[in-house]
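Dear H.,

Thanks for agreeing to be a second pair of eyes. The structure we're designing against is below in C-alpha cell form, covering all 174 positions.
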C-alpha cells in the first residue's frame, strides 16, 4: 500500500492531494448552495432522539425548507434554542400572532408528555418564527443519518474515516 504511495512523483502526489481538496470543497459548496436555496442554515438534519416517534425515528435524515413564514399547527419544524448547539425536531401545537405581529409558536415532541417550554431558553415561553426556526420538514430518508450519530458518539471514527478517504484518494490511479 505505502510502496505505491512512495512510487508517485511529487507532481502526482500533489495532483492526488488537489483531487482530495476538490472533493471536500465541492461538498462544502453544495452544502452552502443548498442553504441558500432553502433559506436555512442547516437544510439537512438528523433526528437524534426518539421524541418524534412514530413520525420520525432516531437516525432519520430530514430535509428542511425555510421559505414562506406561514407555519401551521401540526407542521413539523426544526428549531435552535439560544446558547444550545443541537437542533430540535418537534411539531407545532399552538401559534400566536401573525400578520402585523411576530408569529410565535409552541412546539411538542409527538412522543413527549408535555410541550417544549422547558426546552426553550430561560424566560422564553414561545419560539419566534423568524429567529428561532431553522426550517420546516418537507421530506425524509429513514435511518440514513445513523452514520452521523455514530460519528458524533464515537469521535475517533471521524479520524479513521477521513484517513481511509485520504488514502483512497492518494492511492487512486487514473
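And this is the sequence the design step returned. I haven't edited it by hand at all.
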Amino acid at each position: 500500500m505505502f510502496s505505491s504511495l512512495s512510487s508517485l512523483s511529487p507532481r502526482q502526489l500533489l495532483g492526488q492531494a488537489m483531487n482530495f481538496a476538490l472533493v471536500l470543497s465541492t461538498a462544502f459548496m453544495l452544502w452552502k448552495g443548498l442553504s441558500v436555496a432553502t433559506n436555512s442554515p442547516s437544510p439537512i438534519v438528523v433526528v437524534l432522539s426518539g421524541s418524534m416517534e412514530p413520525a420520525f425515528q432516531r437516525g432519520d435524515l430530514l430535509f428542511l425548507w425555510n421559505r414562506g413564514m406561514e407555519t401551521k399547527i401540526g407542521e413539523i419544524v426544526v428549531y435552535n434554542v439560544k446558547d444550545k448547539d443541537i437542533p430540535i425536531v418537534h411539531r407545532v401545537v399552538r401559534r400566536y400572532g401573525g400578520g402585523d405581529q411576530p408569529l410565535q409558536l409552541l412546539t411538542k415532541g409527538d412522543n413527549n408528555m408535555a410541550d417544549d417550554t422547558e426546552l426553550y431558553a430561560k424566560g422564553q415561553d414561545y419560539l419566534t418564527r423568524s429567529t428561532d426556526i431553522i426550517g420546516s420538514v418537507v421530506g425524509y430518508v429513514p435511518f440514513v443519518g445513523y452514520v452521523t450519530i455514530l460519528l458524533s458518539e464515537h469521535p475517533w471514527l471521524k479520524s479513521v474515516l477521513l484517513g481511509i478517504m485520504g488514502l483512497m484518494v492518494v492511492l487512486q490511479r487514473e
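Two observations from my side: The longest helix spans residues 10-38. The chain is about 35% helix and 25% strand.

Warmly,
E.
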